[in-house]
Amino acid sequence: MIIYSVVVIGGVAIAIFLLSGLLAVPTEEPQTASISFDKKTMKIIKDFRPSTSANDSFSLPAGRSNPFAE
Fold first, then answer.
1. Which residue intervals make up region (Disordered) (predicted)?
2. Which residue has the higher pLDDT, 32 or 44?
């Protein structure tokens, strides 16, 4: 019983020591990377229409009902 207690207390002490060591490690500064989009992606973003747009061509297939419509 004594050996079990020493092993458990020692394991908990080692776990706490390792976790505190992880928290004490300084974080690295994130590197700023230059991000560039190609022309195709820029055109897609420019042509994006929000959901409030009046031009809505969505229609369900025949025999299907919209579960979100009341």
1. 51-70
2. 44
